[in-house]
Amino acid sequence: MKNRTVPQLTMAALIAALYVVLTYAFDAVSFGPIQFRLSEALNLFAFFHPVFILGVTLGCFLSNLPSPLGLPDLLFGTLHTFLSVLVIWKIRRITLASLVPALFSIIVAAMLSAILKLPLLETYFTLALSEVVICSIIGLPLMYVLYRSGFIPRFIMDPKDPKWKSTAIWPKFLIRRPMEGAPS
Known about the structure:
Layout: H1 5-25, H2 51-64, H3 71-90, H4 94-97, H5 100-116, H6 120-148, H7 151-155
Helix pairs in contact: 1-2, 2-3, 3-5, 5-6
């Protein structure tokens, strides 16, 4: 059996770099109380392999280095992402996993509330809503397309992982027929 460590770490580094690029490309909406950080859709890669916990967390850390909120955003924003991707890896249904970043948005909301003196619940609501839109409405279909195309099974997933053999990770409305070439 071939060693998959180097390719997986390479993919994690590419995801970290892509996270940074997407965050900077949409810099105007990537920081502050109303965020629409498209790079958060990449959190769902952690569902398929734990190496992406490192990749996505590193990407978030690097993206937050020039944050206008400084060190608190670097620490709490990265903590939010780390906890989100860690829990995403543990969850067995991708639809539920796509909601995890919204739940952990309370960390960033509390930080923004403390620094900018914003109302906590409203800040949490806007952050959680953007996470649901990005991870569930944008990220979930993106991951499904990458899975169906064979990219995720071929380059990312560990063949020993039970998620590899199951289409139960996908919502029923997405599954029309078994993926060609995938184990049954």
